[in-house]
Design the sequence.
DNA sequence: TATTGTTATACTCTATAACTATA
DNA sequence: TATAGTTATAGAGTATAACAATA
């Protein structure tokens, strides 16, 4: 339980500290929220990205998420083993895989997204609706 | 380069995505800022905490930073090897160590903190002074 | 020759359990 | 018996290099 005052304020007020602990807290809430669907907070973004049909290849999907292409292989392996996605060689460029959601994958994606949304709202609970939106906007401006 | 629009917005607008990538960006900037002082973004908070004399033991320091006490051992090993801190058995309770900054440690702490502050300001560059303060306040409210 | 997916490998970070010395 | 520090070990997560198939 970090305090805002006292001698420790010098460290608990740092941006790195705040971002790390905010991320840890979201991780906990997301773990609980997604456990019923058998997926992790790490896997949901992959499902979302695949559903969008934005990435034309595994490699593009990996870049989009800021992970290595070799990590994407392992991620898709587990998602395929769970029956949530299928990989097929791209007929146009057979070096590539076309990755798509199964019917189960689409169902899990839809319900898991709602659960994840709830986890986000719980994290932002201490903030007003307006402040929560400001936080998202600020982070978006930094990452953009 | 994440976009705010297009099919990928569904994933790049998520809180987890925003926090992760903001953290990654701060990590890069901090790595560069602290490299001249021979310490990492992970080690600076330890120095700050020790300087505050808030933790009465290594264990309390570890709790404060949200890391394991066994990780604190390794952290202090490297900081001691760099000549930035010294460990001495607590005369009152000889199971504990009293950890203090060396003169070099105090000098590095002072200058590294300024460099870290600059890195934070650079990260928050896209934000107005007011929005930057709002961001800190919002994160503090969530972590508290 | 370059690129996609894959595999093998190693490296970092962290957590768990067991040991020691003190209390 | 409980606690602080330490050590050894193992488990994630991730990155690097090399390989096969295809362009």
Sequence:
């Amino acid at each position: 339980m970090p305090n805002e005052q006292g001698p420790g304020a010098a460290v608990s007020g740092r941006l790195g500290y705040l971002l790390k602990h905010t991320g840890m807290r979201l991780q906990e809430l997301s773990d609980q929220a997604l456990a019923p669907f058998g997926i992790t907070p790490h896997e949901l973004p992959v499902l979302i990205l695949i559903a969008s049909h934005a990435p034309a290849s595994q490699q593009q999907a990996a870049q989009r998420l800021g992970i290595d292409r070799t990590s994407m292989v392992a991620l898709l392996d587990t998602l395929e083993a769970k029956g949530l996605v299928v990989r097929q060689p791209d007929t146009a460029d057979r070096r590539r895989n076309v990755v798509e959601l199964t019917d189960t994958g689409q169902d899990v994606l839809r319900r898991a997204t709602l659960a994840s949304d709830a986890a986000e709202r719980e994290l932002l609970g201490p903030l007003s609706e307006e402040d929560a939106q400001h936080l998202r906007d600020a982070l978006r401006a930094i990452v953009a």
